[in-house]
Amino acid sequence: MNLTRVRAIVAKEVLEIRKNPLLLVTIFLPPILFLLLPLAILAAAGSTAGSVRIPPDQLARMRSISPALADISGIEFLQLLILQQFLTFFLMMPLLIPVSIAAYSIIGEKELKSLEPLLATPVRTAELLLGKGIAAVVPAILTTWVTYVLFLIGARLIVTSDVVYARLFDPMWLLAMILLAPLFALFAVNLGIIVSSRVNDVRVAQQMVGIIVLPVVLLGVGQTTGLVLLNSLTFIAGAFAMLLIDAAVLYIGARLFQRETILTQWK
Amino acid sequence: MIETHGLTKQFNGNLAVDDLSLSVKRGEIFALLGPNGAGKTTTVRMLACLIAPTRGDATVAGYQVGAQSNEIRGRIGILTESPGLYEKLSAEQNLNYFAQLYSLAPDAALKQVRRYLELLGLWTRRAEPVGGFSKGMKQKLAIARALLHEPDVVFLDEPTSALDPEAAKVVRDFVAELKGEGRTVFLCTHNLDEADRLADRIGVMKQKLIQVDTPENLRHKLYGRRVMIRARALDDAQVDSVRHFDFIRDLRRDGDHLSIALEDPNAMTPLIVARLVQVGAAIQQVTEEQHSLEEVYLNLIKTPTASLSRKTGEGEGGGDSK
């Protein structure tokens, strides 16, 4: 493994990302939405204080999850629901961002026909995959984390209840951000590579891979409706499952990313 | 510098390259000619270790294709059919990227990038995005990219295709300079004139390698060598005076023009001219008949491989009766 070459690939990928306004929009739009939307909804919920009536059974269920929530008011309960819902959606970012970067990277190389001269250099397949992977995963993780931190700061200004705000630091969510987000990003990159090997249009690739956010959406909906109970244990189990899935897609991606396959089978 | 033995490539049972055996010397410009789908690009890809041969073996720059692919990749430069440049990046950024992939030290990389950008007249445009370059400029930049690391062997796949005549000439002149630097150049082209002008030897292939030789020898093998003589008011007696030379393999007359097949025109033409002058022929012109490489190529391509050796054999020793 030649790290100079890996660094060169990462630097070139980042340079290309910076010179691609459409890709920059694709990268930065989801974090902006995921940051501003929940904060706006939280603020709106705060302004409706007093007029919110929470079904007693919902309130009882929430209180049963955590004794600390035993005395929360209706508005606090509502804010808590919103926070939990959007924290789940935060996990969509490490899925959406790397897919776009990987798709632009691979399909861009296909469009420019730059893969053949690139593969004729001494660069090894692992170096190429690692370089492209880092260039897609790192921005996604950093963006997710920065957005999360900004969300914590913004929520502090809006959420008045310390009990509710403390839920943002639940180990479950820290686990999700630190462990699940990178695993999701890795999964998305490899899926992006697999799909990009078969299609020649970035938008088609994005649409095809976009479906991977569906389980996260369902998770959020399930949590809100009480069908799914999220806790640290479920996140650890999820992380373990993601690790296995990552290994599988990495294997498939690496097999597709062989010189001969790229030059003779990629469409 | 390049040796192949029985190199064969099949794709899903379809034969792309069949039993290719050839040898290219250091410092030689070798041109591979063939119609579309003849297997030229597949051959280059095998030699550049981009795809693996189905059978056979090859060495490039002293290293074994397959077992020592990475060593080979570090010692070859390749210009692919399409320049394949990063259009949003500048010329300098494109070259810097490849300099790092070829593990050039930073100071060496700077020097090499500058050298080739200057050499190919792109230095003043170095900071501009490549997307705004003309086809000729892109092709020159792709050539610079292939040479940055000073490779021993350079593979050029259609280096002047889609270029205007002026840009094509710049590229051709540059390829000729590579030979002067002692590099081995393996050229795939459809441009027969280009091959004729640049190549030391030409290989004609159509899945199999049909013929390999110098452009001159290919012509001679196929058509033999003929001298054309034009004389004013040539008469039968004058023609008869040379007809008896036993080294003449064929003699045809068309008015004042004689077409004579000879094995060694350099040695034999003066004897014929001297005899004609001696018998009073007023010789106006003496030239050796030249067949274009296009004729040679088309003849080779249309000839079934199996019957080719028979045909070329006839070309060497045959001819019309005197």
Give a structural overview.
The complex is a heterodimer of chains A (267) and B (322). Chain A contains 13 helices and no strands. With 267 residues, chain A is mainly α. In chain A, helix 2 packs parallel to helix 7, helix 5 packs antiparallel against helix 10 and helix 7 packs antiparallel against helix 9. In chain A, 41% of the residues are buried. In chain B, helix 8 crosses helix 11. Chain B is elongated, with a radius of gyration of 24 Å. With 322 residues, chain B is of the alpha/beta class.
Question: What keywords describe this structure?
Answer:
heterodimer, A: 267 residues, mainly alpha, B: 322 residues, alpha/beta, six-stranded mixed β-sheet, 14 strands, elongated, disordered C terminus
Brief synopsis:
Chain A is an all-alpha fold and 267 residues long. Chain A is built from 13 helices and no strands.
- In DSSP terms (H or I, runs of 4 or more residues), the helix count of chain B works out at 12
Radius of gyration of chain A: 21 Å
Please give the largest β-sheet of chain B. 6 strands, mixed
- Structural class computed from helices and strand pairing of chain A: mainly alpha
Main sheet: strands, sense, barrel of chain A? none
Question: Would you tell me the overall average pLDDT of chain A?
Answer: 81
Compute the separation of the termini of chain B in Å. Answer: 46 Å
- Please give the share of residues in helix of chain A: over 70%
Oligomer: heterodimer
**Rg estimate of chain B, integer Å:** 24 Å
Pattern of helices and strands of chain B: EEEHEEHEHHHEHEHEEHEHEEHEHH
Tertiary shape of chain A: elongated
The DSSP helix count of chain A reads 13
- Which structural category fits the helices and strands of chain B? alpha/beta
Counted beta strands of chain B: 14
| Low-confidence parts of chain A | none
Mean pLDDT across residues of chain B: 84
Largest interface: A-B, 29 and 33 residues
Percent range for β-strand residues of chain A: under 5%
